[in-house]
Amino acid sequence: MGFRIDTVLSHTPIGARSLVNRVSAAAGYAFRGLRELILDLSSFSAADFLVYAKYSLLVWGCIARVVIRRGPIGFIHELIRYPWMLHLLRATALMRRFARGRSGLYLESMCMVVHSVAELLSELLEDLFYHRDRLIITEEMVPPDIARAMGLKVWMLEAMGILLPMMTPEFCLKYIDEAENAGVNPDACSLPKATMGMVMKGHMPDGLALVSSNMPCDAGMASYSYIQRAYKLPTYRLDVPNNFTNDRAERLFSEDLKGMIAFLEEHTPGRMDWNELKRICEGRNRMLDLELELWDMIRLRPAPLAAEAVILSHMWHFNLFAGHPKSVRHYERLVEMARKNLEEGRPATEKERFRTVLWNPPFPHFVDIFNKAERLFGVTLINDSMTYNHHTPIDTSSPETMLKGLSMVIMQGPMVRHTRGPADNYLDDIFRMVRQFDLDMVWVANHVGCKSGQAMNGILRELCRERKIPLLVLDYDLLDPRIASRDSMMRQLEFFMENVMKVDRLEARRTG
Amino acid sequence: MKTADRKALKVFQELLENPVNRLVEQAAGDGRIPLGYSCSFVPEPLLMADRLFPVRLHATGIAGTEIADNYLSSLVCSYTRSILEFAFDDRYDLLQGWVFVPSCAHMQRLQDNLEYLKKPGFVHTIDVPRKVSEATLDWMEEELHMLSDRLASHFQVDMGPDSLDKAIASWNEYAETVKAVGELRKRPDPPLTGTEFHAMLMASLASPKDLIMPEIRAFRDEVEQQGDITGHRARLMVVGGHLHDPDFIRVIESQGGLVVADRFCTGSIPGLMPVETNGRGPVRALAEHAFRKTLCPRMMEDFDRRLQSVIDIVREYNVDGVVIEVIKFCDLWGVDSMPLVTALRDKGIPVLKLEREYRLGGEGQLRTRVQAFLESMGR
């Protein structure tokens, strides 16, 4: 019988959460991971076996490197400070979920994404351990490019709330409860609730300054009223105009970015290095080129790569590490894989019958739903709204043009673009994607806490009906599986496929 | 609690029975142009220029929001759903234009759905920034100029500086009059209840100011002639977002808690501070005024100001306890009220946080909670 990390951590009284408990939990996880690895490997072909084993070892190598570098005593000290790190031991379980039923370069792309997450996450953890004297705290929609160009290290408060439920679906529950018990409205989005809960429990690092914004939603923005008071840090808030598609908005927001730079120079040792920003922006531009090339290839039916390889890559690399050499390399490898599949006439999956887009935030606590949809019904996720950007490459000829370019990246970025301005900003992108990627259906991730998205479903339903586009509005909560369980989400999917799309299953559904 | 039966109050209650009341009909019949708006950041004086007049969108008396729920979903604030439902019922058809602020996601999507479903002839969005600086003040001024230009060309009205100065003077007179009535509540035994004051204020927001001013003056005279309210158990302040139905305050007061201060979207504090022109042009003055007189959690950097305003009002109006009312699903107030409640309790101020729907419901439950709150204060 394996140990369950959430059981161990949640049911042990705080005072008794001793080192022994934590180590035994870790050992239990290591044992469980090993058992799962053996089970997974037995289902692969020899070549896939080697790929999977290679990336599993690479992921464990990333974890081992962090532990060894910090030293066992130091690492245990950090673990006590940041208990959520224990969940990172499940990274290979995430890889297992992505890899199941997939093969060849498609499988490798999945493994590579998980490895790239682990590799860059280890860098983030090292920032926590060794660079607290240069660490700033930011909100999720504040791109770290500028702070990094100033020689600062960035900790995005919401990042773990999104990432860790992918490994342990129940990860956020105790943090959500903490925030609700403190008086936050239960109907607010679970991401700001989880983030506030992590801050309340003292599980987030300290920093020199705080940068937040009015993005992406009311609850996220309002949560920083509390977070600022909890941290007692000097705070700068970026303000994206509602109507952002004009020169006025670009000018106003560029000035806002300059204000942020001046603020960071005043409150941190960071100093603006425009050459470094140029290097980062050029890296970002290169990633954008590669992503567009990837999109051009996945437009074709059947797609040479798809699903998490496309969407998780964007979520992690563009939002947290844009311009990072490892992120650029990651996208180069993705494009190489897609091109190779295309040249050899090999689809990502032989099962592709339907192509879909996911609109609104994904399902961190049920991250393998796309894998299941692919295996059960032949539905391939081609792209998602969080990946679908609209900005042009950044002009790196001067500091002014770089700031202008970055302001467009932020304003035209996912969620910002779709939660602002007229409804057309939201709707037009969906129908444009349907045309661009030759889609058969649209999935809306109907997060109960996202009022902006909820209030668009009525219009979207009518417009999809007019255009004869099948629409699945999948009810769920971003981080809280108690609101909509994995089973209820699967039932919604099955009901849609069987009753609306009227298709049979390709294979029987199994739990787990 | 001993209260008076006032003649003028009945007038205000009658004016609130319909979202487009008889004074609006009368003004529209005289060739004037009613414009609906839903947020306190919309500067009323700008909508009072020439033949224009503002009507605060309300849906008092709404019974259900079944049709609006299909579009906005039942997980969006019931104020916006109620407005959309009434719009479906053509209850706002006399309005010739709508002015919105994307003050929150709900309000923004109300506008989106309204435009999609009803396609009104004139809809305008004022893009109000969420923090205040010289740059955002300039932006706000430009936004108001854009609205002003559109109003001038669409309705053929005079939006020039003289016309706006006249509208500002007229609004200032209205604000001073209502504010003076509100300040009577600072007395140890005020001559009016919170219910009466709110009925007057809401009726004035939903009517042409010039036509309702005689009623307000009559009410003021009546209040001054009659005796004080005595026998209340505690003096309360209500804080929060949209609160339109005076009956909500009536229920609170039925338990002996006299509401003496109203620091919510449609309240008088600090919403009725006069517009100061200072020679910088009427539009700039209105831009500055909009930021100064509105204390909304959508403003990212204003938490301390919001908190301090509550503390100041508690002292100024000798308030015993604060009731924070939050419409269900309102993220701005729902999240922001958490640190607000904590900070007020840290200051020794008793706080009751009430989650409510736009229309008054669960009256018994509300009574019990207020009663328990008063008892917890030892009243």
Topology:
The complex is a heterodimer of chains A (512) and B (379).
Chain A: H1 5-11, H2 19-41, H3 46-70, H4 72-81, H5 91-99, H6 104-130, E1 135-138, H7 145-149, E2 153-156, H8 159-167, H9 173-182, H10 190-200, E3 210-213, H11 218-231, E4 235-238, H12 247-267, H13 274-298, H14 308-321, H15 325-343, E5 354-359, H16 369-377, E6 379-384, H17 399-411, H18 424-436, E7 441-447, H19 451-454, H20 457-467, E8 471-476, H21 486-500
Helix pairs in contact in A: 3-4, 3-5, 3-6, 5-6, 6-14, 6-15, 9-10, 10-11, 12-17, 13-15, 14-15
Chain B: H1 7-15, H2 22-29, E1 33-37, E2 52-56, H3 66-72, H4 78-88, E3 97-100, H5 105-118, E4 123-125, H6 134-155, H7 161-183, H8 194-205, H9 209-225, E5 234-240, H10 246-254, E6 257-264, H11 282-292, H12 303-316, E7 321-327, H13 331-346, E8 351-356, H14 363-376
Parallel strand pairs in B: 1-2, 1-3, 3-4, 5-6, 5-7, 7-8
Helix pairs in contact in B: 1-8, 1-9, 3-4, 4-5, 6-11, 7-9, 8-9, 8-10, 10-14, 12-13
Low-confidence stretches of chain B: none
- Could you say which structural class the secondary elements and strand pairing of chain A correspond to? alpha/beta
Please report the two chains with the greatest interface, counting residues with C-beta closer than 8 angstroms to the partner's C-beta. A-B, 45 and 51 residues
Binned, the helix content of chain A reads 55-70%
What is the radius of gyration of chain B?
Answer: 20 Å
Count all strands of chain B and give the number: 8
Terminal CA distance of chain B: 13 Å
Main beta-sheet annotation of chain B: 4 strands, parallel
Order of helix and strand elements from N to C terminus of chain A: HHHHHHEHEHHHEHEHHHHEHEHHEHHEH
Instruction: Figure out the total of helices of chain B.
Output: 14
Number of strands of chain A: 8
Oligomer, anyone? Answer: heterodimer
Radius of gyration of chain A: 22 Å
So how many helices of chain A? 21
Mean pLDDT of chain B: 95
**Rounded average pLDDT of chain A:** 92
Shape of chain A: globular
